[in-house]
Write a structure and sequence with these properties.
heterodimer, A: 229 residues, alpha+beta, D-amino Acid Aminotransferase, Chain A, domain 1, Dna Ligase, domain 1, 2 domains, 4-stranded antiparallel beta sheet, 7 helices, 33% helix, 28% strand, B: 455 residues, alpha/beta, Rossmann fold, 3 domains, 7-stranded mixed beta sheet, 17 helices, 38% helix, 17% strand, elongated
Chain lengths: 229, 455
């Protein structure tokens, strides 16, 4: 069952048709999925204060109900090393359409995965796992399973990826923490079942998975058209 | 709903038999049941009269005694009236052959008959379908018997949204010597749908393998289908059409774009251990193989051949399909060598594929199969049997089948399907060993046994 707070986030987002990233991250955090330390800063001083608290380097991302794909408008800036760099990014973002502040978040490292969900017409909620990042639709290296998933489903999805070996410690690179990854996907699967037909689709991309952690760095929750509810 | 009167009727009424048009679908259906099947059949037409010296009944009510099944082949706008007669008369069920419903936009008419049937708990197949083929018992296809290729009674239950695909698949099944327990063309599937027939065939003792040709499921219907298929022990095989339709739709997330309708279909089937056939050839091979060997294997294949080329081709195809052709251990190679005749022992290649060479005689095949059947390192054996090899006798099919029966390890043979090799082929088939007509077919039969192949 969804908590009232969680339903509140979804309902508040209805006018846009999708949940703004800071709210989507808050929703995931409430559902027990790990997200980065972040602040939704509505002014430059707020942004600078947040960065000081989190500690440089940080990532900054534009928040705008008019921008569903931030990378396409250069609305994402990772690796911000100091306050001057952050000020530049803030000013650049503030000129983007529908600007409602920035997310200042801790920098993360690890393999970039995508974890997604959609409400399929024939099968209902399904969950996707694949090699993530901005080139996700170039590589198209994903596996899909009907939700709710079992741990063995996540194992088999990982086996099915062409890039599977990248995640198991290819050429000296550290392997991803499999149990953390499975825990993340299973937690997400439960959330997706609870959201039911409120959603159209969800992208968690990238999800940074390293040997230590699995953290959802970005989330896009597209709501179902109101007519379906 | 009770499906027994639908699939095992003792009496059938055919509504729509024409007194003037010999080629009317209802006449074709009436004729074939009347002349060739062990079922009592009654022609129905509101005009009454006589048809080929038999009385034509004006309505269902006039027919004496119980009617199990009505085959309805009247014009679409007369279907509701005929259906209500059937319900009133307590007919057991119907096949509605008539077209002119949802497929031409008359969803209202389709909803009308579906609501009537649902309220009366009255089962019907269709509309807009060929209906039922129950081998040796009856069929409702409006295709003249002499035009059909009719598979023998067997163990495959086949359900098809398309009548055309069903009839064509019956040709393919017959070529493969594969028998049917029941075949149903469900057409517009207004009432009885894939899920109902999956449930029915799961409980049917004659059916060992359940196969579907599916164009698409309704909202969330796929979920119920895969959950049921995963819960029943019989293998379920699905051939899906419409793999390339989505694509053009605008989507707002990567997931919606990447998890296209067909991708989801394919992945979710595999997740639930349902075998997806990519084409009708695979469908035939999978049905043949799984009707003999329903238990899943890992896919470690031992290959026996008399031709190095055939062995190499088979290895390549197996590798492509994700099957493993493992190297054999020294122990197994030693056992193989010990079992072979003196002049084959020194020239045979005992790697996998095991190449017995053109000098091999029946006893060498028996010895090699006996060893591989007992070797834990392979879980199925693919036999490439080339009957032009001079040492092979016509008894070999049966002899090798006995070896298989001893061990129970799945065995698939490739023998070219020409008439002069028939005795070899039957030696296998009559002893429950599937025989493929090509190397690819044999490899597909192996692949089917993996059952759960998520990638």
């Amino acid at each position: 069952m969804l908590s009232p707070d969680l339903v509140g986030i979804i309902e508040a987002a209805r006018p846009h048709g999708w949940v703004l990233e800071p709210e989507a991250l808050r929703l995931l955090g409430m559902a027990g999925v790990r997200v980065p330390r972040f602040t939704w800063a509505r002014s430059l001083p707020d942004a600078l204060a947040a960065a000081a608290e989190i500690g440089y380097p940080v990532a900054a991302k534009v928040v705008s109900p008019q921008i569903l794909h931030k990378s396409d408008v250069k609305g994402v800036q990772p690796g911000i090393a100091d306050s001057r760099y952050l000020t530049d990014a803030y000013e650049r973002f503030s000129r983007l359409p529908g600007f409602e502040g920035v997310i200042v978040a801790e920098m993360l490292s690890g393999h970039e995965l995508i974890v997604g969900a959609k409400l399929d017409f024939q099968f209902g909620p399904v969950v996707l796992l694949g090699i993530g990042g901005t080139a996700v639709e170039i590589y198209k290296d994903t596996a899909t399973r009907m939700a709710p998933l079992k741990a063995s489903d996540v194992q088999s999805m990982l086996t099915c990826l062409r890039g599977s070996r990248l995640l198991t410690g290819y050429r000296g690179a550290p392997a991803v923490n499999r149990s953390k990854l499975i825990e993340t996907v299973l937690g997400f699967s439960e959330l997706v079942m609870a959201l039911g037909d409120r959603i159209d689709s969800i992208d968690l991309n990238p999800v940074f998975c390293s040997s230590e952690h699995c953290v959802v760095a970005d989330a896009r929750i597209v709501l179902a058209p109101a007519t379906r509810i | 709903m009770n499906f027994t009167p639908l699939f095992k009727p003792k009496t059938i009424a055919v509504a729509g038999v024409s007194l003037s048009n010999e080629r009317h679908p209802a006449n074709v259906i009436y004729n074939k049941i009347h002349l060739r099947y062990p079922v009592k059949v009654y022609p129905v037409n509101p005009k009454g009269g006589a048809f080929k010296r038999d009385r034509v009944y004006r309505s269902m009510d006039e027919i004496p005694g119980p009617v199990d099944l009505a085959v309805i082949a009247v014009r679409a706008d007369h279907v509701p009236e005929t259906l209500s007669q059937c319900i009133r008369r307590k007919v057991g069920g119907a096949v509605i052959v008539s077209g002119g419903f949802a497929e031409i936009g008359r969803t209202d008419l389709q909803e009308e008959i579906t609501a009537m049937a649902r309220e009366a708990d009255f089962p019907f197949i269709g509309p807009n379908c060929l209906g039922i083929y129950a081998p040796g018992h009856f069929d409702t296809f409006f295709l003249p018997g002499e035009r059909l290729v009719r598979p023998n009674p067997g163990h495959v239950g086949f359900v098809s949204q398309s009548g055309g695909v069903l009839v064509d698949q019956m040709v393919k099944f017959t070529e493969q010597g594969l028998g049917l327990s029941l075949a149903v063309s469900i057409g517009n599937k207004a009432l009885i749908r894939e899920l109902d027939l999956l449930r029915h065939l799961a409980a049917d003792p004659e059916t060992r393998v359940i196969a579907f040709y599916v164009e698409g499921f309704g909202r969330n219907e796929g979920r119920a289908f895969v959950e049921l298929a995963a819960a029943i022990p019989k293998p379920v095989i699905v051939l899906k059409a419409g793999k390339t339709t989505a694509g053009s739709r605008a989507v707002s997330s990567h997931t919606a774009s990447l998890a296209g309708d067909y991708q989801v279909f394919s992945d979710v089937l595999a997740q639930h251990g349902i075998v997806e056939a990519r084409n009708e050839f695979e469908l035939t091979c999978f049905c043949e193989s799984l009707s003999h060997y329903p238990r899943a294997i890992e896919g470690r294949v031992g290959i026996i051949t008399v031709s190095g080329g055939h062995g190499a081709l088979a290895s390549d195809i197996c590798a492509d399909l994700g099957l493993h052709v493992p190297r054999l251990s020294e122990t197994v190679k030693g056992e193989l060598r010990a079992g072979l005749s003196a002049n084959v022992r020194d020239i045979a290649s005992l790697e996998n594929p095991v190449d017995l060479t053109g000098s091999a005689v029946d006893d060498d095949f028996v010895a090699a199969l006996t060893v591989l059947s007992e070797a834990a390192e392979v879980d199925a054996v693919l036999l490439l049997l080339l009957p032009y090899s001079p040492g092979i006798s016509s008894d070999l099919g049966a002899r090798l089948s006995y070896v298989h029966q001893q061990s129970g390890k799945p065995l698939v043979a490739y023998v070219p399907h020409v008439e002069k090799y028939r005795i070899l082929i039957e030696g296998f088939e009559l002893n429950n060993v599937p025989v493929a007509s090509s190397i690819d077919g044999a490899a597909f039969m192996m692949e089917a046994m993996r059952r759960c192949r998520p990638c």
